[in-house]
Amino acid sequence: MSTSVPDSGVAPAARPSSTPALLRLDGVHAEVAGQPVLRGITLDVAEGEFVAVLGHNGAGKSTLLRTVLGLVPVRRGQVRFSGDDITRSPTPQIVRKGVSLVPQQRGYFENLSVADNLAFGARTDGRIGLDEIYELFPILRERRGQLVGTMSGGQRQMVAISIALMSSPRLLMLDEPSVGLQPNLVARVMEVATQVNTEFGITVILVEQNIEKVLQVARRVVVINQGLVQLDEPVAEVTADHIWQLL
Amino acid sequence: MLLEVENVSKSFGGLQAVKNATFEVPEAQVTGLVGPNGAGKTTLFNMISGTIRADAGAIRYRDMEITGLTPQARIGRGIARSFQDVRLLPRLTVLENVVVGVQGQPGERLRNVFTRPRHAVRSEKENLRRAAECLDYVGMPVSVHHELAGGLSYGEQKLVSIARLLATGADLLLLDEPTSGLDEGSLDEFRTVLRRLIAEGRTVLLVEHNMLLVRELCDRAVFLSTGEVLAIDTPGRLMENEELRNVYFGA
Amino acid sequence: MSEYILSVATLIAIYAILSVSLSLLVGHTGIFSMAHAALFGVGAYTYAVLTVQFGWGPGPALIVALLAAALAGAVMAIPSLRVSGDYFLVASFALQVVAASVFENWTSVTGGTGGIPGIQRPTMGPLDFGDSTAFLGLAVGVAVLVVAVSLWIVRSPYGRMLHVVRDDEVVAATLGKPVRFAKVSITVLSGAFAGLAGVLYAQYLLYLSPGTFEVATSVSVITMVVLGGMTSVLGSVIGAAVIVLIPQGLRQLDIASSAAGPLEQVFFGLLLILLMFVRPQGLLGGSRRPAAARGDVGDAAKGATVHAA
Amino acid sequence: AVVMTGCGTSSGSGGGSAAGGGGTGEGYACDADEVTIGGLWAQSGPQAAYGEWFANGTEMAVEHINADGGIGGRTQIRLQVEDTRALPEPAVVAFQGMVSDGIQYVLSSFSSQTLALAPIAANEEVVLINGGAQSDALGEQGPFLFNTIPLLRNESVALAEKLYEDGVQSAAIIYTSDDGGEAARENFEEAFTELGGEITGVESGEFGGTDFRSQLTKLRSTDPEVLLLGAFGQDSANIINQVREIGWDVPLANTSWVAIPAVLENPAAEGLRLTTIPFEPSEEFQQEYQQKYGEAPTSAFIGNYYDGVKIFAEAFEHVCDSGAETVSGAALADAIREIETFDSVYGSELTFEEGTASRPIDLAVIRGGAVTPVE
Amino acid sequence: MDLFVQLLLNGLVAGSLYALVAVGFALIFAATRHFHIAHAAVFAAGGYFAYFLADLLPVGSAIAAAVLLSVVLGVLLVVFLYRPLERRGGAGFVLFLVSLGALIVIDNIFTVGLGARPARLDAGGWFSTTVDIGRWSLIAGQVALIVVAFVLFGGLVTLLARTRMGKLVQAFSGNPEFVQIVGRKPQVVLVVVYALGSLLAAVAGVYVAADTGMQPGLGETFFIVSVMAVIIGGIGSITGAFVAAMLLGLLENILLLVMGAEWTLAAIFVLFLVLITVSPEGLAKINLRRARASA
Ligand SMILES: Nc1ncnc2c1ncn2[C@@H]1O[C@H](COP(=O)(O)OP(=O)(O)OP(=O)(O)O)[C@@H](O)[C@H]1O
Ligand SMILES: Nc1ncnc2c1ncn2[C@@H]1O[C@H](COP(=O)(O)OP(=O)(O)OP(=O)(O)O)[C@@H](O)[C@H]1O
Ligand SMILES: [Mg+2]
Ligand SMILES: [Mg+2]
Q1: Which segments of chain B does DSSP mark as H helices, in order?
Q2: C-alpha B239 – ligand 2 centre gap (Å)
Q3: Domain around E75
């Protein structure tokens, strides 16, 4: 049903920045199941930024994050992280460079216990350890022996977020982390995202549907539409209504 | 009362997911089922729709006990559900996904396929028309009717799953987090659909974490926590409740 | 036409019936059966035993053979009600081995490994199916009928219901579909078709022995179905033709040594591998590519894990 | 009849298809430079080891005849072999192909495939030679099937009689559940009990690489005087080992098919009693075979197929000598019946009785790694 | 009684053989969801390689080299067939058929090499020395087989339960893609799993070659019974597979007391069908209940 959008689209706003880009996408094209999904994404994210990505269902937000991580092959264009070309690097190698993703679905191992799951995120040099996680999600301490597959939808989501946080990445990508979470936890997750960004200088890319929430936490907004960057502005320069109209 | 849940319990191994839950769902209203993650909402849905069996307690629909019935029998009486994780059939087309919701199709009986082919064909036409209507109802354009459901975006899938629910003709609709992950546009669409349904006299039991939506759409809400019903009230009053605020809504 | 060509053409028609009947299960209902050779065998043996051992006429023997194969299909459906995916694959494997074992060891009825010689082809009025051309006509006629019925079925609402059952049983149940009945009825019908193929096979070969109805045959029928495209009824026909013709084609290569047989098998294996790389959706499995190619054996094991205990 | 591509067009050219013509009625031309005969046996699958012996015997005979200038010093024989995996269906299809190519004479083996071919051979009037299968049903398959191997009933009955004469009163049977093993059991059991002997127990196992120890353990508890092995090839060798490994010293017996190197060289087989169809090819033959195939020609199968080709040559000449211009399958079959007795590579004579070779059967014993006759 | 105990001992031997093949398959299947029917070919390869190499090397080295080669074979299959195919989106039946193709190819290549003669490995005189156990007996080769089966099984369980690699294998079995997202290499898991699984099967293959000789088609027979054990044991449970395989071996032999050998396998299969119809999750269901209760 996707009507084709000409490659030119809306040119992304030039983003002069004093710090060198941590992540740089240059005209990235990608396909899923033979269908073009990303059609030339160009995006720079500087170290320490907090970028929110918005867009319709099916706009290609998840695909964008998965492409950065090498889970979706790049057809055309280039992805650089911290100056290195990672366009064709295997996922584990990219992760080791310091990129973490909380996927939209199944960001955990159902068949392992909570504790075993968290161990996969643990880093010896980690700034966020088990204690911090258990403070954030107390239920996980209580249930540390339970198989994640037997937990409720929201409980699983907590595990997924925790694994990514514990890996203490340079770039943290969150794909709708609050889906299915109870309201007070949604707020907590947003707080934590802000906290790791400001306290530890972790660069954050957050995909979200809730515009108001996004504007509260992020410092820059990127809107994706039909596989292209449609808007790319600092939060200060956009309003919810403005974005509403784009969507 | 359309649906009565009385002292229903369910344990998984050592974990009691639902404890003596009792509540009612009045006809032609939207009743919310809210509560923290892991409260037992999905588990309750599973028991009402018959995909799992309650350990104890009774479930009544239109004053008839349905506790022991199969899922097939329950939908036959007019209870239909959606899934937290959508569950469309990705290899069927959008229209097929909806038409399979229609109950009592003569063409689904192998015997009729051979012995009464004309009858089956005629009613098939009628069913397809009805499915198309349901898709129209949720705002899906005709152009997507023959696309595979697997290729739809998440939001569209959710709308199609509601169309499928409508096609069943059921009176009681169980919706499990129908809006999570929907973009703002689709959310609007969903609101409209739900209002129209209620206006038509259907009954909805809605699981939802989006409290703005609950407040806007629900007449009453059941608050569930660690498997127990803590309160039943209007959404507005529930949200003012200090205790619930702490465990759920947040400051 | 030479006897040879008639013979190969007849085999293609018979295997087409068999593979179409299996595609109803595998492609349309998601029942991955490794026991199709057993159903085929039940039809063939019932017919042969009744006509040769008990002197029945071809008509009644045919009817009983179809019923027996349908019944065998019903028996096969029982585990399919409880398990799916890999579990059923292995369950049907077991059924296949049990059936083969019965064909081989119930010597007093099936003649054991010695088999049943002396089967006759039927005559119908002026039509003598002992004539190879007439028999080919019969086989093709039956095949066309089976294909037509199968196409009609998979395109009916009943077929659509099978697809729902195939893709998600929980959803099917919550939509009010009679999941069990759907599975049993299609397995019974598929069994009857396989039995029909078996009867034709007995009449074609005029001799039965258990070797024909072993796992290897089930495997080659599955190959026919997958080759043609699991959800394509016509594809199954093509798959059958290709699998029957391959050894005939290789024969023309005339590799004259004792290694010819194994090399032919090696070639067949390589072909299978190559096909899965080049066209996993099968020859006619075109339009609905991504999903069809994902056809899932691994389903039952979802959430299964390696654990030491 | 429509003839397969490449057939009939090159008659007499020395190409692969001088057989010419298709279907029944016609046949080989007496003045052809080359005629084709068929071979149908397993080249792959579990039975392929036997296929190799059949092939070797057949090939040697073809080479010998061709080296001597062909049949009647003129007609070369060409051998066309196809793999059947010992299954009936591929055999039938391949056979039909051979018939369409005009072949009038086909060597086959394995009971089930040969039983499937027999009615078609009769219908198409093509001679079918079996030198490997011993199932008794092969004795009643009409005028176009000739067995160059005695059937099991002949051997098993002889074995039962000779053992009983030796004073053996009771026997247990272990057999493989293939047609050969099955027939061996049935015939022996019937003959032995008829004579007044007692069968103390019967056990079976799958053909091919089975561990028989448990069955043997069970049979041991029935305490028979002799254990009959209804198995051949490696299975037979395995059973012999396993009998001794479980510490059972019962005397063993088997029919001639047991005499393969793996058994003869095995000290555990010492003293095993067996029927033999004395296969004593000439020194020359033995040397040639050894050189060609790297083993001694101990299997009688080799001889049976060698004879099968020789019979063809003799029958072919017989037909042409009688003034015919073509040699049909029917004519070949008649010729074989007329000639009746042939020289055999066995070193003895071969006589057909109702289509089945009657060969002398002796009782022997394995001693010092060799089959030694007993008086 | 004498007979019964001897049959039990024989059952233990058969069970050990099935267990080696079954545990290897269970590991591979649970971790990868590959219906690796070419496992049967790896089993056969163990026997064939040992048979061929015994002409060139002392028997001990030949066996070691044969096992190593089979392990390499198993790993090659996953690296060059399954993995690339998965990359192209193949799964389920597609992988099954490729595996089937590989089985046919490998089996027949050996047949060409052998001329279909049974490959009987001469493992030395010790192999068939009778070992008396009370009034009963086994041969030394059988005793060795049982010991090896238990040792390898124990080692594998320890490895899975105690090491990081074990956890990684489990993680991979649950969510292979997420393994990459947490920065681990899935190839490593695949290689380890196939190497270990193939090792177990190859050892069983060597034993069969030494005992009765390896033959075309033999691998499939052992494979079918072993897969059945995997299902009875509960897919994913290594211990379940081991125990079920042992039980099948014992049962197969004990059934001889009441029926002929031609029916024992059929009887086991019928029993299997009844069992999975009644309790689809196999023995693991019981395990799972216990695990939940303790959670
Ligand atoms: N496995 C798949 N098969 C077919 N199409 C797919 C698949 N995965 C994604 N797509 C298609 O790719 C497009 C982009 O999907 P993506 O998941 O990136 O969207 P999104 O912006 O994350 O949407 P949402 O907000 O719903 O999560 C959609 O049109 C979707 O239908
Ligand atoms: N099959 C199962 N085995 C063990 N525990 C289970 C199982 N299913 C659910 N649970 C547990 O039961 C509790 C209730 O789960 P349920 O899915 O009903 O929660 P929910 O209210 O729907 O939560 P959410 O809002 O997160 O979806 C949870 O603690 C969960 O861990
Ligand atoms: Mg997304
Ligand atoms: Mg839920």
Answers
A1: 41-49, 71-77, 94-99, 110-115, 117-137, 154-167, 184-199, 211-217, 235-240, 242-244
A2: 23
A3: 2-294
